[in-house]
Design brief:
It contains eleven helices and 13 strands. The radius of gyration is 30 Å and the shape is elongated. The longest helix has 44 residues. With 406 residues, the chain is of the alpha+beta class. It has two domains: 188 residues, no CATH class; 202 residues, no CATH class. Helix content is 53%, strand content 16%. Strands 3, 4, 5, 6, 7, 8 and 11 form a seven-stranded mixed beta sheet that branches.
């Protein structure tokens, strides 16, 4: 332990300004690597989730960003015509998220009401921690509406409990019955950015059928069109729907298949990822060179003390172990700081009462974060190996003799 303390205080930290610069660069490289790794993992998860949509005959709707939309001119009768045309001519998946409402819960979090029809639920049903899946065969205003609740609402509203609330899209007092509870951190990825996710720990899912749509207001009607998915359709049929929507609502929609959405995403994502990887690689090269150079300079400045230690029994194998111990401590501290920042970032969503991004996990860190941290640890191991082995190799080339003690 004494020899390790000697090397840390008299050699490794001899030029503390260089050491501080190396630590800052190493932390920056770790943070950039973590960000890139987590983004790649999230993208991979998104691709897996959306792969069910990546098939012939499936088209995703989105409002043309270059069009001029005047939502004030849209009336409920116009949207009813569109949905009547949809119900008579198409099979479609509908999911509308993000209707915020106040509902008492132990975390005092706003609750998000999400609406989903049977086709959308069939494509990618949620995993439940307990309870049953949604039932879409109910009579609106005559029966209790079966719902799913997020994990954050499970204690306040367990399976079988009833909720009486004014529905945000129908503006009617409704009776809800909790059918099942989603697994912790259930999420959905964005069609156009698979690395982006909304979490549903504080969400309620309402099953939508034709009766419900007829009773709903403009908010649900218009928002549901934004990410509607046509199933078992053709490009010609999608264009017919586009014309029908434009004629009745004055809104111009695009209909792309999921492969086209992936390509659009990759155009900017891959380039950004290349830049991040290039920056990370340059930082790692600088760190390896700086750490090796700093160690060698410090040893040359302390050549007498270093020689004495070699003469009294310090072997190069022990020296290698000391080097690995030092850089292991250094990397552990930096990784602990990175874990702390990640945990604080996740906890910040709870402090801000953000129901879309609040997640459960050890220290608030979810599995995706831990996997990214593991990748960073692997990168650190490679960096440490390169620094230590290069340093030992260079040290062996330094002439060591009793003459340096005179």
């Amino acid at each position: 332990m004494r020899i390790l303390r000697f090397f840390i205080t008299r050699i490794f930290l001899k030029r503390w300004i260089l050491v501080l610069g190396m630590i800052l660069l190493l932390f920056l490289a770790n943070y950039v690597s973590f960000t890139a790794a987590r983004s790649i993992i999230s993208t991979f998860q998104g691709y897996q989730e959306l792969e069910n949509l990546n098939q012939e005959g499936t088209f995703v709707a989105n409002l043309d960003p270059n069009s001029e939309a005047d939502f004030d001119k849209i009336e409920i009768g116009d949207t009813q015509k569109v949905y009547e045309y949809l119900n008579n001519n198409y099979t479609y998946a509908l999911q509308a998220n993000g209707f915020v409402t106040s509902l008492q819960n132990e975390h005092n979090m706003d609750v998000i009401f999400n609406y989903i029809n049977e086709e959308a639920y069939k494509i990618n049903p949620f995993n439940l921690s307990h309870g049953n899946h949604l039932n879409f065969n109910y009579k609106f205003n005559k029966e209790k509406i079966p719902i799913l609740v997020g994990a954050g609402l499970a204690k306040t509203y367990p399976v079988g409990s009833n909720i009486e609330i004014t529905d945000p899209v129908t503006q009617q007092l409704v009776q809800l019955n909790v059918q099942g509870v989603l697994k912790k951190n259930a999420y959905r990825s964005n069609f156009y950015a698979p690395n982006s996710k909304n979490y549903f720990n504080f969400s309620i899912f309402i099953p939508v059928n034709e009766e419900f749509i007829k009773s709903a207001g403009l908010d649900l009607h218009v928002n549901s069109l934004m990410d509607m998915v046509l199933l078992n359709s053709t490009k010609e049929e999608a264009m017919n729907l586009k014309e029908h929507i434009q004629e009745n609502l004055g809104l111009e929609f695009n209909f792309f298949n999921q492969e086209e959405n992936f390509k659009y995403f990759e155009e900017y994502y891959v380039n950004s990822l290349k830049i991040i990887c290039a920056i990370t690689f340059i930082l790692l090269i600088i760190i390896v060179c700086l750490a090796t150079w700093n160690t060698l300079i410090s040893i040359r400045l302390m050549i007498k003390d270093f020689t004495i230690n070699l003469l009294v029994g310090l072997s190069y194998s022990k020296l290698r172990a000391i080097f690995y111990s030092y850089f292991g401590i250094l990397f552990s501290i930096i990784l602990a700081i990175l874990i702390g920042i990640t945990a604080f970032d996740r906890y910040g969503f709870w402090l801000r009462k953000d129901p879309i991004f609040s997640t459960y996990g050890v220290f608030g860190i979810i599995s995706m974060d831990w996997l990214a941290l593991l990748i960073v640890l692997l990168i650190d191991f490679i960096i440490g190996f390169m620094i230590v082995e290069l340093s030992i190799r260079k040290i062996k080339s330094i002439p060591i003799s009793v003459g340096v003690l005179q």
